[in-house]
Amino acid sequence: MALMAHGGSSADAWAELAACGHEESHLVKPLRKAVLPVAGLGTRFLPATKAMPKEMLPVVDKPLIQYAVDEARAAGIEQFCMVTGRGKTALIDHFDIAFELEATLAERGKREALELLREEAMPPGSITTVRQQVPLGLGHAIWCARAFIGDDPFAILLPDDLVLSETPCLKQLADVYRDTGGNVVAVTEVPHEQTNKYGILRIGEAAGNRVEVKGLVEKPAPKDAPSNLSIIGRYVLLPEVIGFLSQMERGAGNEVQLTDAMAKMIGFAPFHGLKFEGRRFDCGDKIGFLEAQVAFALARPDLGPAVRAFLKNYTDL
Ligand code: G1P
Question: Average pLDDT, stretch 270-290?
């Protein structure tokens, strides 16, 4: 599949997608890149996020950003691009080698902690960053990573969305992508009255846990929603989406919406939603974040029994 050069217009992207056609979908380029949009201000978690990026908030003992990176690596991702903003340096430092810390741990014989750090060390050159100087929306954030994306398919992980599952959620998507090619998004059912918080699917044929995406609408009012199947923050997309994002059309909330650009690819390349196995927690929301703490702690063999025991103290409240 010859893929487009990105300075191009959306008409170029369209023509190239049309040229690809379904019949060539077996030519699936390997998925090695991921974009992590992390420029958001985290206002819902003030004052915690006054001097610290919201993606550094820990669930149990690991920051949200690390969950996203670990999940992506488990899906075969090798190259990362963080779309950052001001005050986000801690996110980059987090993936650096902490020489002083490692030396101190070694000196004190803290082998387990040292091994943990070393296991999680990123290969040199695997993380790059770009800045989104103005908050114009998720679509604009992804467009900022266009040079990194180049002509390759790529994953997007929104670190606020945390998934507890047997198989890492992005790996589930990558497996579908390998099979079908095209675009794949993780989807889940949401209460009908909440469709205005999400990107919502118009569904075509379903086969097992895969559904064909026939349409996409960003944050529709419940009365206008084509279903209650919502996109969560895991995507595998063709690079042609950049051509559509380049138009900078404003959508819901007057932002450049990724969902609107994705909608323009429907019909020109395979597009599937995957009802993934696992539970999704919205860690951009206080209740979702607190629930994630409990669920992830309960799932840990070293903490689960103690957490289960103390939770009993609160069940009568
Ligand atoms: C974004 C997307 C939306 C998606 C959601 C998942 O919305 O625009 O389509 O359903 O993430 O978390 P946001 O949460 O940034 O408003």
Answer: 96
